[in-house]
Amino acid sequence: MTAATTAMAKPAAGTGGRGGVRRYALLLALWDSEYAKKVYGGYYNVFVSAFGSNAASGERWDCFRVIAGEFPAAEDLASYDGFVVSGSPHDAYADEPWIRRLCALIRTLHAMEKRVLGICFGHQVLCRALGGRIGKARNGWDVGVKKVTFAQDCLKSFGFLGDLDMELPSSASLIEVHQDEVWEIPAGATVLASSEKTRVEVFAVGELAMGIQGHPEYTTDILLNLIDRLTGQGDIEGRAGEEARRTAAETGGPDSKFWRTLCKGFLSCGGRPATPEVRCFTGAAAPRVQLAGLQR
Fold first, then answer.
1. Nearest 10 degrees: CA dihedral of 120, 92, 186, 48?
2. Of 106, 281, 278, 111, nearest in space to 185 by CA
3. In angstroms, rounded to a whole number, what is the distance separating the alpha carbons of residues 281 and 43?
4. Which residues contact 217 (CB under 8 A, 6 or more apart)?
5. Torsion (CA) 138, 139, 144, 150 in degrees, nearest 10
6. Which of 5, 124, 154, 173 has the most CB atoms around it within 10 Å of its CB?
7. Active site residues
8. pLDDT tens per residue across span 90-108
9. Are 87 and 120 in contact (CB under 8 A)?
């Protein structure tokens, strides 16, 4: 079932949107918060505003609420140019039926050589689906606007980055709201960025799959509302909430333009061959965090 779509014509099945409308699927793994509904009309609009182009560019976004069991039909998968998996308050290593189904879908898309971008929960479930390991963050909650540092040598190995109309920075500020993390990346994957608290902030598997632990789609007001909710629910302590607010104030907010350009560039760069052989920080060679109760 399609939860929401743009008002644009559907391209012929199997075209992947090429030669006309480019088509993307947003897989929402969460329910809309009251704040998101009131201010943005829901998370669908947050994502499309961040990663989409204007209607005149020839682009369509379909939304599937996977947390509610809404998934794209198997016969429609080939017609999409790319897929985005959202964040979620659920654990990506949980055994709920919709999460297992999402993992199976991701494996199918990867086999079809479709581009998949995972955000926060989506980053973690992408890792799980492709053979990596995930679990609770060893350093606890990470909330606020944090500095993410890039592995420059690794970035040069990815073709889609060369098409971005901007210089790649050595680091960029990103909104973080997570208590889980990637423990071990999939075989053949590459770590592209890390931060003080999180070893795997960004990873890629060839040029077909990319996970980002933070939230490039979020704005500072969404972060501040989340901090209020997390402290109000007792998920994080009041002083942790104050520290998160301080990071937002001192940094001036996330480097949204860079992160959104990166995500758009990844999703729109169709037709490039995958490059699984990247001599850098890969799944086989990456330092592993050994924790009890490791889950897939």
1. -40
2. 281
3. 33
4. 46, 47, 50, 51, 119, 260
5. -70
6. 124
7. 120, 215, 217
8. 999 999 999 999 999 999 9
9. yes
